[in-house]
Inverse folding.
């Protein structure tokens, strides 16, 4: 696997553009991304589990459940089109129709995503006009991919992109991705959007199965603030233009693709946490020796989601008591007397708990580790041999500021 | 029901004291409370659901499951005696033995509670010496109750007490209570302790059943930061000295007692939130029209536990989108199109959502309500006729400061 440039445009046949249409009411803040595939692509997606689903999520769910082919994605930022009732549904249809008209595809071939403030109708004329005037700018350069990745941001401080190349049947296969993370220009909620493009030829059901599997280990293992958005989605388009022999089963070629696909999604998931609202530190929690993978994941998620753990990291405090506490209320059964915890920055390491016994550690080395921007917590249980990794960030004054103070 | 003074000493036969024994290493910070009942009392209690349980929790659980009578409670603050392994168990026994010796009761008649930092052994000599030198100060005055309530505090900014009087069979029956809330002198975790004394004569199983029932509507409906402590407990001692005809079934007298008991526990639970770490606002969320009480409670808890809802209240923002989002991921099934939300301070009211439709509201009136220290959110669904109330606080810079910044 080779890391390459080009983001979502690195797979053959994909082009994109990022534009300013005025949803955000701020000059120089892009808010419309258009992604196009020359060939109809199979699509796989996972959506928020929130019972309150934004209108575009409902639109996309219908396309995915019909196993319809997709040729375009329209993503707007600044307004989530969530809790907008019938008018929200209508606006989604209007976006699809506008894209359909100019791109000469069917409305049902358009995936739509919106992110931003909740409960306010979209400025639909601006968006439709924006699609009409900007679709001609679609291009397949690195810059065009960058523009799309920039246009989907809200309070993200940088755009998140990746592209990789693998070889399958002597054909070059590419996977590109872009994602946006936590925060909104008119702050509202953590909204995670991720879009993956690939030119691999693969069976739709197999791709959907792979995505479901991957999501559990990537996007579902991150937390910024514990709030599950109404708009979260990960969408993959595969247009088959790499001309590999179509992958229809979990064979060797599938596993080459899977490994690269996992890399792309892990990278984007971690980038979302890196750029978490107000985050000053990136925390990796490795759980080993759990009775099951599900247990390991629950323990990891519980730790990175705890406000008390998060504020302790912000305070650069090796507060393993809060970690034990978060494990204790995770819902997982385990023997606390067999738990070992150590902190590391990959240079120095401190043991703070060995088999349930607190270890007197060097406070200076602890502070040296905890002052770092990236901190690793390794936790070993003795319940079995399952493991998992979770990624989180600290909880800082700026998180409160971004989410509480936006009127000032 | 009459609100009276005297706290935990208002029921007949109870006395208490609060002392400084040096656990907290701070002059003038009390850290040992002793509560004594002249007559052996039946005891009921509920404990943390955290799988990591502090040594005193394990000690008390054994007493309660044996249905043993209790005559004293020893409560220390500054150190939680949690994650302390065998030495922690040993220390708990030593406290019980010391109390047993001076108070002339059995060790198993002593309920023990500790709150504070995790993973550090108790300064056991200081505590045993403290019991020996201070038990003689036990008194049944209002001041003695106040001293005990002060001695159980950690980062609480004020002590929390209540007492009520009711009449059963022409006998005066009293219920007193004290509680401590969220925070520690060496900040570690939200630790909730509540102690109720009463002179009613009541069957132990009935009292335990009542407590289990009451906890669901009181302590379980509050949240400061979503972290369930290793030390949480609510303990009730009933010594029967009111000489009422013993309550053995859910008759009229039981209901008189139940109503007063609910009042005492609701009051203490709400006080804990009022004094939540860094809290600047007290939020009441009323859910009506849910399919079941459990649904109503889950919805209310999900809202008051959301960091994004909490920061919005800190920012005085009528951000109902975050409320809908928190409801949406609560795990409860409901139709978002039938939800109505309004904010009130009991003077002004604004509708922000009526049957799923956002309502344009007067921003000035909204700000007038949201600037208040106590804000009520009323949410109506159309799924059934169950209701529940949850209480929470905002998430402020000071929460982050208290929990992250203690080294400075």
């Amino acid at each position: 696997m080779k890391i390459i440039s080009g983001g979502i445009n690195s797979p053959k046949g994909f082009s994109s553009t990022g534009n300013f249409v005025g949803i955000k009411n701020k000059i120089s803040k892009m808010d419309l991304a258009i992604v196009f595939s020359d060939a109809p692509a199979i699509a796989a997606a996972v959506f928020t589990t929130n019972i309150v689903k934004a209108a575009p999520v409902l639109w996309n769910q219908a396309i995915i459940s019909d196993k319809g082919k997709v040729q375009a994605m329209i993503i707007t930022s600044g307004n989530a089109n969530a809790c907008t009732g019938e008018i929200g549904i209508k606006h989604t249809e209007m976006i699809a129709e506008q894209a359909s008209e100019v791109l000469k595809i069917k409305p049902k071939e358009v995936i739509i995503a919106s992110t931003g403030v909740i409960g306010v109708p979209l400025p639909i004329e601006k968006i439709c006009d924006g699609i009409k005037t900007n679709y001609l700018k679609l291009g397949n350069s690195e810059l065009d991919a960058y523009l799309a990745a920039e246009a989907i941001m809200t309070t993200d401080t940088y755009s998140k992109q990746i592209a990789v190349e693998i070889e399958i049947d002597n054909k070059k296969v590419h996977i590109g991705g872009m994602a946006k993370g936590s925060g909104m220009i008119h702050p509202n909620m953590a909204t995670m959007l991720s879009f993956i493009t690939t030119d691999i030829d693969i069976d739709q059901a197999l791709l959907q199965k792979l995505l479901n599997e991957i999501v559990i280990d990537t996007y579902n293992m991150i937390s910024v603030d514990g709030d599950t958005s109404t708009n979260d989605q990960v969408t993959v388009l595969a247009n088959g233009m790499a001309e590999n022999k179509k992958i229809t089963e979990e064979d060797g070629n599938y596993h080459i693709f899977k490994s690269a696909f996992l890399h792309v999604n892990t990278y984007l998931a971690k980038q979302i946490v890196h750029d978490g609202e107000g985050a000053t530190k990136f925390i990796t929690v490795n759980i080993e020796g759990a009775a099951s993978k599900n247990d390991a994941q629950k323990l990891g998620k519980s730790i990175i989601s705890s406000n008390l753990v998060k504020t302790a990291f912000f305070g650069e405090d090796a507060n393993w008591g809060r970690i034990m506490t978060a494990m204790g209320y995770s819902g997982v059964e385990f023997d606390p007397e067999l738990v070992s915890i150590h902190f590391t920055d990959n240079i120095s390491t401190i043991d703070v708990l060995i088999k349930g016994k607190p270890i007197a550690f060097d406070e200076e080395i602890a502070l040296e580790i905890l002052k770092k921007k990236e901190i690793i917590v390794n936790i070993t249980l003795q319940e079995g041999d399952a493991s998992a990794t979770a990624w989180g960030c600290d909880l800082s004054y700026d998180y409160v500021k971004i989410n509480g103070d936006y009127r000032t």
